[in-house]
Amino acid sequence: PNAKIINARRHPLDSCFGSYKQLFASGQPFTYDLFELGEYYLEYQQLMEYWHEVIPNFILDVHYEKVVNDLETEVKRMLDFCDLSFEENCLRFYETERAVKTASSEQVRQPLYSSSVNLWRNYEDNLGDLIEILRPLLIELPKSEQPSVLQKVD
């Protein structure tokens, strides 16, 4: 009942596009439809807003972009939230020998990199359905993080 939750966040378009281009195992067909992915993302957003209201001191939002830009600060923030001590090994997560069974199994074997930040911009012209369904979230972002099609509308 007193578990701490770390909510890993990412730019909505990067999050959805990252799932879209990943070949998942069966049982996740929604990841191959941009509109459906957007619907799932909106539901996730609503669910997290609910939990933030119900258990506000037990959820920490951690933004991928901030982790990539300042790993040590963000790791310390997460550990502090969980009442855990910082260890240098936390910054060298990629040196672990343990088995990893996730879609990012290759990525966890290397240091963080920033090439996936704003990757959606390279495909913006093909993300119209996703942009449209995520519009309510995207217009709340700073202009610099919005798709160009939304910046043209005032």
UniProtKB/TrEMBL annotation:
GO terms for cellular component: Golgi apparatus. Keywords: Transferase. GO terms for molecular function: protein-tyrosine sulfotransferase activity. Pfam families: Sulfotransfer_3. The keyword Phosphoprotein does not apply. The keyword Transferase applies. This is Sulfotransferase domain-containing protein. It comes from marine metagenome.
